[in-house]
Amino acid sequence: MAGEYGSDDGVIATNDDATSCKACAVSLGYWKDPYLACFLPSGPDRRPPEINRGFYCRTQAIYLLVQKFIQVNKGECQVVNLGAGFDTMFWRLKSSGDTPVRFVELDFPEVTAKKTHYIQRSKPLLQAISHDDYDVKLNRSNLHAFKYKLMGADLRVLPEVEAKLEESDIDYSLPTVFVAECVLVYMCTTKSSELLKWIAKKFKSAFFINYEMVNLGDRFGEVMLSNLRSRHCDLHGAAACATLLSQQERFVSEGWAGAEAADMMSVWERLPRSDVARVIKLEMLDENELLTQLFTHYCITMAWTDTRWTDITL
Predict the structure, then answer these.
(1) H/E/C letters for each residue in 70-117?
(2) 260 is in an annotated binding site
(3) Is 286 assigned a ligand-binding role in the annotation?
(4) 152 is in an annotated binding site
(5) N or C: which end of the chain has fewer CB within 10 A?
(6) Mean pLDDT per 10-residue run, the chain (314 residues)?
(7) pTM value?
């Protein structure tokens, strides 16, 4: 994809890589996700144990936070997944009985077109979004179901984002949780700041879960940046990923009431200990150094416009 911002092919390709990584971890029993295989017909490639643990930590933490938000609001809320890729959170939440009023996914039209195609051809995926009193409406890159909405949009173009959300029947007065996994970092800070400021102003009560890089100033961070550039994935928003404090400040400076950032080592320590003990036994690590380096160079930032959500933690 090429346009005003140059080629986005490298960023779009990260979705396929993340899907394959998640599928590898699922196949080894890190967590259960019967829906992921619907988006990966060729099956997963084997990944190192450190990568599998990293994806487990990331996926479980975000799922638990979103689940808590839905439960605290007794389902009277919305989820907006920014740059959702082939994420299966809607289906996993529905299977556990935790469904919000509305679940909206936004991504590049090239990605949503593929996802729409996979949903159409998969009975489990299609059944889960169907409703007796609501016909599933779709075109090449957009899908409207009863609670689930999949929309093609460029997150750097705010009027486009707003139009797609309104087309999804978004309710600005309902509590809404936003999820972004390695999304803002691919946008220049001017564009990501515009988006965060707009959300804080437009939504009456918003909660944000942001997963991405941190501590990029050391040697390990430089190697990460170099590897991503070699795959044509320039981190235009890397400045906001310098430290945990800069991750928090990016929200507070755009009108959010507060934010808390924690690296993945801290997040790992907060996950349910019995499940962590189970996961550790799945694969042996030769040494913990690489895992520690990975965990200290990624983080989850939670931000809120409503102080009621400060209690939603791991």
Answers:
(1) HHHCCCCCEEEEECCCCCCHHHHHHHCCCCCCEEEEEECHHHHHHHHH
(2) no
(3) no
(4) no
(5) N
(6) 61 92 97 96 87 97 98 98 98 96 98 96 94 89 96 97 97 98 96 98 98 93 87 89 96 98 98 97 91 96 96 93
(7) 0.96
